[in-house]
Design goal:
There is one protein chain. It contains 8 helices and no strands. By secondary structure, the protein is mainly α. About 20% of the residues are buried. α5 packs antiparallel against α8. One of its GO terms (biological process) is DNA-templated transcription initiation. Keywords: DNA-directed RNA polymerase, Sigma factor, Transcription, Transcription regulation. One of its GO terms (molecular function) is sigma factor activity.
Length: about 190
C-alpha cells in the first residue's frame, strides 16, 4: 500500500479498532504515522515533540475507541486532533516555534537523459523547494496538506478550522509563487 493512499477499508478497520482489535489499531497507526509526523513537524519543528503529539493522539483514540464509529470522516478528524495537540504544545511553551523549516523531499519525476538535463532538474527542484519553504506558514501548511497528504479542500478547511475560501486562496497563492519561481526554467525551453 502506498503510504499516501487512504486505507481502502478504513471504515472496517475503525469498526475493528472500536471493538478492541489491537492488530487493526496497529494497521491504522502505521498507515497514518508518517503523514501525521510530517504534519506535526510543520508546526513544531521538533521530532521529539511531534512524536509525543502523535503518541498522545493515538493513545486517546485507543482509550476512546468505542466512539470511533460515530466519527463521520476520520481523515480530517485525526489531522485536526494532531493540529490541536501541536497548538497545545506551542501554547504550553514546551518548545518554541522556530523559523527554520525541515528539509522535506519533493517528489518530481522528470527524465534526466544527459548530465545537463540532470543539472537543470536539480536546479528546478531546488527552486521549487525554496519557493515552498518561503511560503507564509499557513500557506505552506495548506499546500503540503493538499499535495503531500492528498487532502481535499474541505478536509483541509475542517482540519485547520478555516473557511473553504481561505484554503482555496492559499493554494492559489502557493501555486502563483511556485510558478514564479520556475518561470526562468520555462523560458529556457
Amino acid at each position: 500500500m502506498n503510504k499516501n493512499q487512504r486505507i481502502e477499508n478504513e471504515g472496517q478497520i475503525l469498526k475493528l479498532v472500536s471493538e478492541g482489535d489491537s492488530q487493526a489499531f496497529r494497521t491504522l497507526y502505521m498507515h497514518y504515522y508518517d503523514r501525521l509526523f510530517n504534519f506535526a513537524m510543520l508546526f513544531l519543528h521538533s521530532e521529539a515533540a511531534s512524536e509525543d503529539v502523535i503518541g498522545d493522539v493515538f493513545f486517546v483514540i485507543w482509550k476512546e475507541r468505542s466512539m470511533l464509529t460515530s466519527i463521520p470522516n476520520f481523515h480530517p478528524y485525526i489531522y485536526q486532533a494532531v493540529r490541536n495537540g501541536c497548538l497545545n504544545v506551542l501554547k504550553s511553551g514546551y518548545i518554541s516555534k522556530r523559523d527554520d523549516i525541515p528539509d522535506t523531499e519533493l517528489q518530481i519525476n522528470i527524465s534526466t537523459e544527459t548530465p545537463l538535463d540532470e543539472l537543470s532538474y536539480k536546479e528546478l527542484h531546488h527552486a521549487v523547494k525554496q519557493a515552498i519553504i518561503s511560503l507564509p506558514e499557513r500557506c505552506r501548511i495548506i499546500f503540503k496538506m493538499a499535495k503531500e497528504d492528498e487532502m481535499n479542500h474541505r478536509e483541509i478547511a475542517e482540519t485547520l478550522n478555516v473557511k473553504l475560501c481561505t484554503v482555496e486562496r492559499q493554494l492559489l497563492l502557493a501555486k502563483a509563487k511556485i510558478k514564479e519561481a520556475i518561470k526562468p526554467f520555462l523560458e529556457k525551453i
